[in-house]
Design goal:
Blueprint lengths: L9 H10 L19 E3 L6 E3 L3 E2 L13 H12 L4 E3 L7 H10 L7 E6 L4 H15 L4 E6 L5 H14 L2 E7 L6 H10 L4 E5 L7 H12 L2 E5 L6 H6 L16 H10 L6 E2 L6 H9 L8 H14 L1
Parallel strand pairs: 3-4, 4-5, 5-6, 6-7, 7-8, 8-9, 9-10
Antiparallel strand pairs: 1-2
Helix pairs in contact: 2-10, 3-4, 6-7
Length: about 300
């Protein structure tokens, strides 16, 4: 197990790990990185997906002419580790277009395309979803989610029709705020959904007691956003070493510990950390390999977090 060395950045620690043969940062996976990525089933179909996906908010929103090679490196590391689920949205600026362009220029395994509809009105929703498919370069979108519940009744009606027509494979809803949990809970109880996307982290554990059990009862897959709280978790542990017991769950970095806490909840189907750094992408993907914390270990992780903040 490696530890964060006081005064050293995540990048510096990862380079030390790579030099020791623990991580691939050049696009060629190391022996360790070739361990099998865990997968979990989508309850509505039984289809298995890898437990660590890729988020694209902010990180894939590039201006025309802006350097794309780091993101190409992120995708190489993602696929080398067994990743498939890429989550995006029209809300994320140029992210859908950047994804489509990059994937169109590289060999890659089958992708699970997940995007969102983020507008009001039936016609506007249809137009936006058709544009999303064109930008990403796919005829069939695996999952479309109603982003932040905007006009969700109208958009779910269209999504059901599109699913029947084979234009999408799954439908769902999303939100990123705990204050929206009442609405998420009501819709999860009343509507037939394949997926729900919600926040869950050491700093925001609320969904674990409330929405994850409901998702399991209703047969809804769970996609977890904001696993690092926009970097807030890293700021809280800056300069601190990993606890010795992190090795029990195979966590070699704080990022892996944060992600394994989420994946330790069996109701979680996939978590979608976002990064524009290939080294961080490789590190994140390692969280989906090896052991995961049980309920007792997750309590210890919560106690550690509460002692830090």
């Amino acid at each position: 197990m490696t530890s964060t060395i006081p005064g050293m950045s995540r990048r510096a620690v990862l380079k030390l790990m790579a030099a020791a043969g623990g991580l691939a940062v050049t696009g060629v996976p190391s022996v360790a990185a070739r361990e099998a990525m865990r997968s979990r089933a989508i309850p509505s179909s039984g289809e298995e997906v890898p437990v660590v996906g890729l988020g694209t908010a902010r990180t894939f929103n590039l201006d025309p002419g802006e350097e794309r090679e780091p993101l190409r490196g992120v995708l190489r590391e993602f696929f080398a580790a067994g990743g498939r689920v890429i989550d995006t949205s029209p809300m994320y600026g140029t992210a859908e277009t950047v994804i489509g362009d990059l994937l169109g220029d590289m060999d890659h395994p089958e992708v699970f395309y997940a995007t969102k509809v983020w507008t009001r009105g039936e016609e506007a929703g249809i137009r936006q979803m058709e544009e999303s498919a064109e930008r990403m370069g796919t005829d069939v979108i695996d999952l479309i989610q109603v982003h932040n519940l905007v006009d969700w009744r109208t958009q779910l009606k269209t999504l059901r029709r599109w699913k029947d027509e084979g234009r999408i494979r799954y439908l769902g809803i999303t939100h990123y705020r705990v204050s929206a949990f009442d609405d998420l809970e009501r819709i999860m109880r009343e509507e037939g959904l394949d997926w729900v996307q919600l926040p869950l982290s050491l700093a925001t554990p609320d969904a674990a007691d409330r929405l994850l059990p409901l998702a399991a009862d209703r047969g809804i897959a769970v996609l977890v956003n904001r696993p690092f709280e926009n970097g807030g978790l890293f700021r809280a542990v800056r300069g601190r070493e990993l606890p010795e017991w992190a090795g029990e769950i195979g966590a070699e970095s704080w990022a892996q510990l944060f992600l394994k806490y989420i994946l330790g909840h069996p109701e979680v189907t996939c978590v979608i950390p976002a990064t524009s750094d290939p080294e961080h992408a490789a590190d994140n993907m390692r969280a989906g390999m090896g052991p995961l914390p049980d309920a007792g270990q997750r309590r210890r992780m919560r106690e550690l977090w509460e002692s830090l903040v």
